[in-house]
Amino acid sequence: MAVPAEIRAVPRPVNTIVDDSGTNSPKRYAVRQRASSKYIPGGNPQPKNGKVIGHIIDYKYVPLTDSTASDGPDMLSYGASALVKSVSADLLSDLLNIYPANEAYSIMSIATLRVIRPKITLGRMATHYRRTFVCKDYPGAAMSKNTLGNLLQRIGQDGNKRKDFYQLRISSVAEDHHIAIDGTLKQNTSIVNDLSAYSYKARTRGCSEVSVLYAYDIEQMEPVCAEVFPGNSIDASSYSAFIRDNDIRKGIIVADKGFPPSKIKEELAERPELHFLTPIKRNDLRISDNNMLSFEGVLEGIEGHVVYKKKQIKGGRFLYSYRDARKAAIEEADYLTKAENQKTFEPKKYSKKSSLFGVIVFESDQNLDPKTAYQCYDDRWLLELVFNRYKSDDCFDKTNVQGDFSVIGSEFVNFITTVMTCRIIRKATRAGLLNKMSYGDLMDDLSSAWRKADAPQKPKTDDGYWVHTLQIVFEELEALGLSEPVPKPEPKKRGRKKKEPEVSKTKRPRGRPRKDTNPSVGLL
């Protein structure tokens, strides 16, 4: 379509042409650069048009502005992503040792966003990647839904890389550290994978699930490896496979009753640096045969008034029995309440049970101090807190993926997210913030700290790059070491400033003046 003469007559940069798009848009007439010329055999060279540099609008040339070519927002959410980054440098380093850089960046981006935005789906990853400093921390990560779905499937397919990553985590466990092993069930109603099955809790939950086993370093207060099993696989049957698959070779396994040492005989024999501390059932005959309810002392410095007994039994193993007075009173009250309501009280049954209220007995292949053995298991409740955080705050009670390999790959990323969460809790606790607010409130506050996208990497509270951030959030950032505080002036000394004595111009000599020098004497 021919461009009207009055449009072509509008002043514009040299070596340009006007192109008519034929629409009714204000940008109908585009101004293009002459890029080059094209040679035609037997004819004159023909010009070749280049990119658009502006438009003729209302008979005026309007050039393209820099904002039109901007590839991202000028401000990003800073606080929450900075907190995650501050505790995860070694995780990125381990991933880069095993995975290509582009995949390692995508894995860290997914894990970080799952900490910041619980319940986030793969379809929303790209949006929140671009609105937070995650896009600056891990630049160039491919975050489209299909790309991430393919990535999770590749992670699930390559078990050797996952094992190598877990080995880097396990190698950091000291020989005297205690490893708690436990499992959790997650809802998965997919019909296209073999992991989804009805567990022993299906009659109450009414849905199929998958089982996730975790090994947790009690001293470091974070998980060291994880593995996915079918939902109908009981913990005891997965116990030996979990140790073999992840090649756990050192530490003291502090497991629950669902993980009996009889299930890992071969693994213990092959791994001399691997030991166990496991509770046994209250009706185990070894308790009565070894008179383990005849306690011989009280643990000092333990709440609940705990009595104990330690004894070596046949085969070289040790039994440790404990009775917590507070737990015993609670268990007895619950038992009597139930018997009263259901009218099922039996004197003989009560007499037999009363001696076992508040009692727990452990079996171990280690000769431990009774207090140390008790604290090992008592600290195991931290793993329950991790699972609660894992399912509530991080919203990992469902898998949200379908295929076998996708489930395994997604749980691998969830493992990294769980490590990050544990470290954030430790850091926030040391800073004293979790005494004032919940974990969720803290992450919500930090997410409201916005910062200009071109800001320097080392933020200062007064550097002028912050965008509508509250003072209380600045205090939280400073407590976590995520922003350098404003230097405070030196405190003033108490009291009124001492007044300097005035110095007279003619200083009078000390003492009474002499008579011969007194000018008033001659006047008398």
What's the structural blueprint in terms of helices and strands?
Layout (H helix, E strand, L loop, with lengths): L4 H4 L7 E5 L8 E10 L7 E12 L2 E4 L11 E3 L1 H8 L2 H8 L4 H16 L5 H10 L2 H4 L7 H13 L1 H12 L7 E10 L14 H4 L3 E9 L4 E9 L4 H12 L4 E5 L9 H6 L3 E7 L4 H5 L7 E2 L7 E7 L5 E7 H18 L4 H8 L4 E6 L5 H9 L2 H11 L12 H27 L8 H9 L2 E3 L13 E2 L3 H9 L45
Task: Give a written overview of the molecule.
The chain has 524 residues and is an alpha+beta fold. It is built from 19 helices and 16 strands. A nine-stranded mixed β-sheet has the order 8-7-6-9-10-14-13-12-11, with helices on both faces. α5 (122-131) crosses α7 (145-157) and α7 packs across α17 (404-430). The longest helix has 27 residues, at 404-430.
Mean pLDDT: 81
The radius of gyration over CA amounts to 37 Å
Give the strand order, joined by hyphens, for the main sheet. Answer: 8-7-6-9-10-14-13-12-11
Number of strands: 16
**Strand count, sense and closure of the main sheet?**
9 strands, mixed
Shape: flat
- Number of continuous helical runs: 19
Which percent bin holds the helix content?
25-40%
Helix-strand category: alpha+beta
**Residue ranges: pLDDT <50 for 5 or more in a row?**
188-206, 392-401
Strand content: 15-25%
What's the N-to-C terminus distance? 126 Å
Characteristics of this structure?
flat, 19 helices, four-stranded antiparallel beta sheet
